[in-house]
């Protein structure tokens, strides 16, 4: 994602994104426990609100200065020119917060937020025979968030068999990525961002997105405890904007339901932008229902 790649790419758009990613996907699934209780037993309480807190780790490949709009000015015959550069991006470990609310048994609305603080290292190379070697760092903050609406298919829906609709959901959303680059953190290095030599440079990228998710209940690690299932979920998604490099996305993960209210979930998100610079993100955390 052009400039957003500083971490947007990094996120799933060419890139947390995330995603980040993408970015209207789910990071855990809630499976109603299957029990052998008689029909007359009291049904489980319907908990509408789901809050998740995760640790996210992005893996971002090296970028070019042209992708980020970052360059190095050097003295050369005929005036200053921009030296070719490479940029290593280190997003570090970031928090991921998710919030979803069930409007009905099938329809829910929600969103997620992945703020990322990191460092980008500009590696200067030789140009026109003039040595411009060395490197400088500058800081960035990526405010990456998404709002979405999700439809959960009932176990039996129309002519489709239950094995298709059970655990199946579709989701549409809108992602925003605001990236602030602190050029001052690289002051004195000759690093420029666009036409700016110092100060902060702000970038904003947006995209609509769509996802489809299928979950499968695998069973339970505890003998005789059907109220503690382990579930597998897989998702596929797409960003419909050049800001996110029209990226396709794939995600998979596992959820262990500790009790009807609390679960632990881990997922792996792979972002496949048109430019071929794939990104990925691993997340692990807890989800609570209220």
Q: Characteristics of this structure?
A:
290 residues; mainly beta; three-stranded antiparallel beta sheet; 15 strands; disordered N terminus
Quickly give the structural class.
mainly beta
Query: How many strand segments?
Result: 15
Shape: globular
Distance between the termini: 37 Å
Order of helices and strands: EEHEEEEEEHEEEEEEE
* Arithmetic mean of pLDDT: 73
- Unreliable residue runs: 1-25, 30-43, 194-199
User: What fraction of residues sit in β-strands?
Assistant: over 45%
Output the strand order for the largest sheet: 1-6-7-8-9-11-12-13-14-15
Q: How many separate domains make up the residues?
A: 1
Kindly state the percentage of residues in helix.
Answer: under 10%
* Helix count from the secondary structure assignment: 2
Biggest sheet architecture? 10 strands, antiparallel, barrel
Report the radius of gyration as a whole number of Å.
22 Å
Quick summary:
This protein is mainly beta and 290 residues long. It has 2 helices and 15 strands.
């Amino acid at each position: 994602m052009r400039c957003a790649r500083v971490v947007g790419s990094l996120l799933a758009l060419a890139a947390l994104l995330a995603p980040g990613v993408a970015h209207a996907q789910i990071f855990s699934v809630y499976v109603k426990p299957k029990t052998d209780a008689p029909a007359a037993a009291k049904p489980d309480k319907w908990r509408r609100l789901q809050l998740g807190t995760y640790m996210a780790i992005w893996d971002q490949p090296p970028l070019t200065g042209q992708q980020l709009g970052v360059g190095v000015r050097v003295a050369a015959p005929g005036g200053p020119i921009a030296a070719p550069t490479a940029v290593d991006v280190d997003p570090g470990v970031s928090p991921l917060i998710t919030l979803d609310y069930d409007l009905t048994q099938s329809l829910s609305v929600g969103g997620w937020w992945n703020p990322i603080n990191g460092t980008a290292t500009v590696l200067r190379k030789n140009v026109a025979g003039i040595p411009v070697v060395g490197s400088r760092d500058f800081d960035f903050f990526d405010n990456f968030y998404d709002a979405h609406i999700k439809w959960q298919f009932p176990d039996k829906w129309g002519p489709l068999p239950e094995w298709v609709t059970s655990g199946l959901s579709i989701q549409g959303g809108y992602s925003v990525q605001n990236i602030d680059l602190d050029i001052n953190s690289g002051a004195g290095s000759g690093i420029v961002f666009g036409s700016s030599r110092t100060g902060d440079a702000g970038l904003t990228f947006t995209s609509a997105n769509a996802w489809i998710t299928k979950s499968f209940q695998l069973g339970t690690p505890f003998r005789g405890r059907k109220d503690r299932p382990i579930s597998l979920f897989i998702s596929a998604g797409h960003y419909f904007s050049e800001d996110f490099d029209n990226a396709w996305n794939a995600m998979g993960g596992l959820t262990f339901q500790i009790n009807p209210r609390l679960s632990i979930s881990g997922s792996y998100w792979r972002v496949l932008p048109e430019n071929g610079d794939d990104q990925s993100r691993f997340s692990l955390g807890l989800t609570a229902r209220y």
